Amino acid sequence: MAKTVNRSVWAAPYAIFLLLFVALPLVMVLLYAFQDKSGSITFANFVKFFNTPEDVHTFLYSIEIAVITTVLCLVLGYPAAWIMSNSSLNRSSITVVLFILPMWINMLIRTLATVALFDFLRAPLGEGALIFGMVYNFLPFMIYPIYNTLNKMDKSYTEAAQDLGASPRHVFAKVVLPLSMPGVASGILMVFMPTISTFAVAELLTMNRIKLFGTTIQENINSGMWNYGAALALIMLLIIGITTVFSGGDKDIEENGGLI
Amino acid sequence: MKANKLFAQLYLWALLLLMYAPIVIIAIFSFTEAKVLGNWTGFSLNLYKNLFSGSVHSSLFSAIKNTLSIGILSALFSTALGSIAAVGIYNLRGFKKRAVVFMNDIPMLNPDIITGIALFLLFVAAGLTQGYLTVLLAHISFCTPYVVLSVMPKLKQMNPNVYEAALDLGAKPHQALLRVILPQIRPGMISGFILSFTLSIDDFAVTLFTKGNQGLETLSTFIYADARKGGLTPELRPLMTVVFLVVLALLVIINFRTLKTKQQ
Predict the structure, then answer these.
(1) At residue B106, does pLDDT exceed 50?
(2) Which chain B residue shows the shortest CA-CA distance from A134?
(3) CB distance A117–B144 less than 8 Å?
(4) ipTM higher than the 0.90 cut
(5) How far apart are CA B216 and CA A2, in angstroms?
(6) Of A12, A81, A121, B148, which residue is least crowded by CB atoms under 10 Å?
(7) Is residue B5 part of a domain?
(8) Residue A225 sits at the chain B interface (C-beta within 8 Å)
C-alpha cells in the first residue's frame, strides 16, 4: 500500500480567498448599514428609510413590478415548458436550446434591444416597456427550471392516472401540476430575485421616468451615502431571503445556476 | 391531437419570435448606416468596417480591450484557483467541507448588485484605489465558484482505485496527480474556463461598482454610459451583433461538450 497524500490542504488558499472576497464584503455591508458616518453604531439609516416616502414608494413599486413580472413569466412560461417536455407535442430539442440561450446574453444588450424594438414599432417607452423588457429578460429563467422538473418527472404517474380513468384535464390538475411545483418554486425565485435587484434596466426602458429600488441603492452609493446605501442593500437582501424561504429553499438554483 | 400539436408548436414559435425580435432588429439594422435605429438608409457594411478598423473613438476600442483582457485573466485565475480548490474540497470532510461549499454557493445566489456593493465597500474600507485590479479580483470571486462546480463532478465520477493503482505501481503522488487526476478533470476545467470567460465579459453590475473613477470602462459599462447619454453610438449595433454571435458560439461549444460527456 503506497502512502497516499491528503490533499485537503489544497482547499486552504481558496478558503482564505472566500473569506476575504465573499464573507468579509458581506460583513462590510452589515457594518456600514448599522453605522453612521463617524462610525458609531446606529439604527438611523433604517429610520431614515422609513422617513423617506420617495424611497419607501420606490421600494413598494419595485416589489409590485417584480410580482407582475413573475406572474407574467409563469403564465407565459409554464405552457411553453409543458409543451417542450411533452414528447407528443414537441420532439425537437432545438426549441429548448433556443429558450435557454438568452439567459447568457448580456442583460444590458437585451434591454437596449427591447428599447430598439419599441423605437422601431414607434411605441412609447414607459411602464409597458418596462414590464415587457423585464419579462423578455427573465422568461428563460422561469421556463428552464419548470422544464427540468417536468422532464425528469416519472411518466408512469401520468400513465397510471390515465389507466385509472382520469380525463386529460384531471391528469394535469391532480398529477402533473403538483409534481412540477418544485420547478415552479425555483422559477419564481430565479425571476423574482433578479427583477427586484435590477438597476439600469428600468432607467433605459423608461427614459429615466421610472425608478426601481436597485437604482435608488446605486444612486446612494454613487453619491457617497455608503451607510444609507448599505442599509437599503440589506433591506433588499431581507426581501430576497423571505422569498427564498417561502419558495422552499435554494437547492434548484444551485443546480440550475451551473452549466446549461 | 393533430390540432393540439399544431397549436402547441405555434405557441412555442410565437414566444420564440417575441424573444428574439429585439436582437434580430439590432442585427438587421447593423447593416445600414442610419444614426437612428429604425431608419433604413440602404445596405452598408461601413459600421462593421469602422468597428474592426479601430477608427471608432478610441474609448470604445479600449473598452473592448479591457473586457477581453479581464475576461481571459479572470478565467485563467479562476480556473487555476477553482481546480486546485476542487481537489482540496474533494479531500475535505465534515464541517470544513460544508463551510467551504456553503461559501462557494454565496456568489452564485447573491444578486449582482449586492455582490458589487459588498466588494465596493470592502475595497473602500481597505483603502484600495479601484480600477483594473479590483475589477479583476471581483470577477475572479464570482467566476471561481462555477469552476469548482464544473470540476467537482469529474472528481466524484473518477474511480479512486485508479489513483491508488498508479501509486502502487510506483508513481510519485505528484506524478499520479498529473498523469491520472489531471486528465480526468480536464474537461471540467475547460468548461469552467469557458463559463468564467462568458460570465466575465457578460458582467455589468459588479464591474460598475468596482471599476472606480479612474476612467476604466468595459464593454458593458461603456454601453451603459453611452445609452444614458441618449441614443446609441451606431457602431454599437454591429458590436452587439458580434457579441451575440460570440456568446452563442461559446454556449453551443459548452452544450456540445456536456452532451458528449453525457453520452460517454
Answers:
(1) yes
(2) B19
(3) no
(4) no
(5) 53
(6) A121
(7) no
(8) no
Please check whether residue B186 lies inside any domain of the structure: yes
pLDDT per residue over A230-251, tens digit each?
A: 999 999 988 888 887 777 655 5
The three cell numbers of residue B48 are 462593421
Q: Does B241 touch chain A (CB under 8 A)?
A: no
Cell triple for residue B219?
464593454
A60 touches chain B (CB under 8 A): no
| B71 Rama sector, left if φ>0, alpha if ψ -120 to 50, beta otherwise | alpha
Q: Is A99 inside a domain boundary?
A: yes
Q: How many domains does chain B have?
A: 1
From B224, B216, B215, B84, select the one nearest B155 (Cα to Cα): B84
Q: Decide if B93 is inside a domain.
A: yes
Range 77-106 of A in CB contact (< 8 A) with B: 79-80, 83-84, 86, 88-90, 95, 97-99, 101-102, 104-106
CATH code, domain with B100: 1.10.3720.10
Q: What is the mean pLDDT of chain A?
A: 84
Q: Does A249 touch chain B (CB under 8 A)?
A: no
pLDDT at A2 over 60: no
Question: Does position A89 have pLDDT exceeding 80, yes or no?
Answer: no
Domain that holds residue B114: 57-263
Domain containing residue A218: 54-255
Domain count, chain A: 1
Domain with A112 in it: what CATH number? 1.10.3720.10
Greatest mean pLDDT among A61-75, A79-93, A110-124, A206-220? A61-75
Q: How far is B239 from chain A (nearest CA, A)?
A: 10
Q: Classify residue A201: in a domain, yes or no.
A: yes
Q: Could you tell me the CA-to-CA distances from B99 to A49, A257, B137 in Å, in that order?
A: 34, 20, 22
